[in-house]
Specification:
The complex is a heterodimer of chains A (182) and B (231). In chain A, 31% of the residues lie in helices and 20% in strands. Chain A is of the alpha/beta class and 182 residues long. Chain A has a single domain, classed as Rossmann fold, CATH 3.40.50. Chain A has a 5-stranded parallel β-sheet with strand order 2-1-3-5-7, sandwiched between helices. The longest helix of chain A has 13 residues. Chain A starts with a strand and ends in a 14-residue tail after the last helix. Chain B is an alpha+beta fold and 231 residues long. Chain B has 2 domains: 73 residues, Ubiquitin-like (UB roll) (Roll); 122 residues, no CATH class. In chain B, strand 8 and strand 9 form a beta hairpin. The longest helix of chain B is centred in the middle third of the chain and has 17 residues. Chain B is globular. Classes of the chains: A alpha/beta (182), B alpha+beta (231). The interface between A and B is medium-sized, with 28 and 26 residues.
Chain lengths: 182, 231
Amino acid sequence: MNKKIIATTSLAGCFGCHMSFLDIDERILELVELVEFNKSPIDDIKVFTKMADIGIIEGGCCNSENIEVLKTFRENCKVLVSLGECAIMGGLPALRNGIPIEECLREAYLDGPTVQENKAKILPNDPELPMLLNNVYPCHEIVKIDYFLPGCAPNADLIWNALVALVTENEMDLPYEVVKFD
Amino acid sequence: MKETIRFRIDEHQITAEKGQTVVEAAKANGVYIPTLCNFEGVKPKGCCRMCTIKVNNRFMTACTTPASAGMEVESSTDELNDIRKSIVELLFVTGNHFCPSCEKSGNCELQALAYRFRMMVPRFPYQFPQKGIDASSPRIIKDQNRCILCKRCIKTIKTPDGRDYFAYRNRGTKLEVVLDEKLGNEMPDAVARQAMENCPVGSIIYKEQGFLKPIGKRKFDKKPIGSDIEV
């Protein structure tokens, strides 16, 4: 059987979903028999070198780079999976939604109680930095997402069951205990 | 002795006492009809529509509909469960329900209904409305982000002389449940705990103590909401 190709990324996430992915423990040995990783922080491949069968997205979209990466994933993956609360609904970064960007930046870099070293009162303005979006967006509000796996972080068994089902083209068997929002 | 009546809910034969609501009768017969704003011992309000059933091809709320002899109730059908699921989804997108950071997670009835109906993602776009938090009371935090306006706290949390701790304020989209400032300051410990318990979501949080039960031991970690009723 040809190995399915998997790509993963973390957008506005904390890498907790990727850590939870690694919580499949020794099943990772079974996984390498089933799949080959392409663009992913797991193997550090930075750009797509071929079309992937499954793209796994952690994190929502909080800046212009997230949007670009997400669109690249949509173009290069046959199936996209939103993994975790941030990808599905913005997650904790979305707590800033509704608060003007200027106010957020002021709090973080100028007026916040823990700000000590910013005497020149500089807001991050390097042209290399991606622009913040007005809101943090769930991934499915930017591109079409095919599957959603909730959790913060999603249970390793949920990731394993769903992934094996997708790879082997079987129906997902997701028991009650593994589908949780926290 | 009260008059006994018989009727059907889906394929179940239900025996009920005259005067019972459909929800009560179903529960007594081991049939779960999902509810959210309904609270045992309080006059049903029928506002959340979670218990929507179909009788004679009409939509009714099972918590306010009295059981009557021979009625044929549709409850656990694909159509009705999808309507209920869509209500849960609407509540999720019209509030700010950040389950990972909520102390009520695992014990929350809204979340439990989402689990029961297998909500992986709401079909509606998230609104992220701007709402406030009132932490002025020494005992509780009233978080409007999570409030679903079910009125359970208004109806059940009262002083011994019958005064309300909670009340509705404003109308329409600005409607919110607020805590009386003076009574909130004097709220006894037991009342504060009861208020958190009676709130179906995490809108009323008891202060200075949280996450008492570890993940895996909370109300809805292992078994879906309603599984204690279903036979």
